[in-house]
Amino acid sequence: MSTTDILYLSMLLGSIPLGHLVKISGSPARKQFLCTAAGICLGMALVGVWGILHSFVTILGTYLIVVSLGPRRCEWVAFLYVFGYLFFFRTCTYFGFEKPPAHSNAIQLLVTLRCCTFPFEIFDPEVTGETDSKKSKRPSFYEFLSYSYCYCGLTTGPYYRYKTFKDMINQEHPKQISTFIPAIRNLKTVPFFGAIYLLLNHYFQ
């Protein structure tokens, strides 16, 4: 088991108490900031600057397409862009670029999935909760960054829609949601799956 794998596992386990902290942190703005900061720090620690740069370019390109083309034309252009960049990411060594770190594959894939559907949702008032049409026409880069780099599922999945992210951020009574008991229940399976992983990793690596 490599040092990177140990770091990866530690981050996965650390995200459990972090989730509880996010839940009780208070305002939606604070939750959004914590989720974004945790995701960026997790990515930087796991894959470094070069590994996370690809996902950042994906997010930045999607944002520029959305704000430049607007709601009527941006969706499919952004869709083609993010999957085109994913193709480049997978083949960048053929163009003379350094091969991305192993764990950056998962981050890039999840960011790609989020960015390809985000333009379809960001202008929907039912999803954003914005009643001001001017606001819905100019989504902020921070909104793109916070959803794309939200630490929840960033390296393992599952993919979830922007609406799910907004619902989590704007949850009105988060303290009524149980987190400790479900976490303990799920942690009971860790030794079993951990043993299987180590066994398979030893014989089939």
UniProtKB/TrEMBL annotation:
Where is the protein situated, by its record's location annotation?
Answer: Membrane
Listed pathway(s): Lipid metabolism; phospholipid metabolism; Phospholipid metabolism
UniProt xrefs under Pfam families: MBOAT
InterPro entries the UniProt entry points to: LPLAT_7/PORCN-like, MBOAT_fam
TM annotation in the entry:
34-66, 78-97
Which terms does the UniProt entry file under GO BP?
lipid modification; phosphatidylinositol biosynthetic process
User: What molecular functions are annotated in GO for this chain?
Assistant: lysophospholipid acyltransferase activity
Which UniProt keywords are given for this protein, alphabetically ordered?
Answer: Acyltransferase, Membrane, Transferase, Transmembrane, Transmembrane helix
The way it spans or sits in the membrane comes to: Multi-pass membrane protein
Q: What would be one Gene Ontology cellular-component term for the protein?
A: mitochondria-associated endoplasmic reticulum membrane contact site
Family stated for the protein in its record: Belongs to the membrane-bound acyltransferase family.
Can you name this protein? Lysophospholipid acyltransferase 7
Protein source organism: Desmophyllum pertusum
